User: Which sequence fits this backbone?
């Protein structure tokens, strides 16, 4: 008699990409500092099959100023992290979240200095 192994439903490839807790904490920390500087007013998070996206808005009724995207499928190519500007141009791409957030961090330093 042979045993039949039935896979657990939903096992295999995940249905959506999400941020891990440390990643989200890093992003929300930056968001909080931008809010405190008076620059960002709202945000949105989207979890899809291909990517997880954090969008930061200056005002709620416009395009996001920045989108932070996590695309695990690009992990071994260009890097799974991308910083996308307001008009859809990729401003920075990389393997690690910190360096990808660096342009926004520099902008925050300029906002605080003024």
Assistant:
């Amino acid at each position: 008699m042979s045993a039949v192994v039935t896979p657990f439903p939903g096992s295999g490839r995940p249905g959506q990409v999400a941020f891990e807790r440390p990643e989200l904490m890093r992003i929300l920390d930056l968001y909080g500092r931008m809010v405190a500087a008076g620059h960002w007013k709202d945000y949105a998070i989207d979890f899809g099959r291909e990517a997880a996206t954090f969008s930061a808005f200056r005002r709620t009724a416009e395009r996001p100023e920045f989108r932070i995207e996590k695309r695990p499928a690009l992990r071994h190519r260009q890097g799974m992290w991308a910083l996308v500007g307001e008009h859809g141009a990729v401003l920075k791409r990389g393997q690690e979240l910190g360096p990808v957030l660096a342009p926004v961090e520099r902008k925050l330093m300029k906002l605080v200095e003024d």
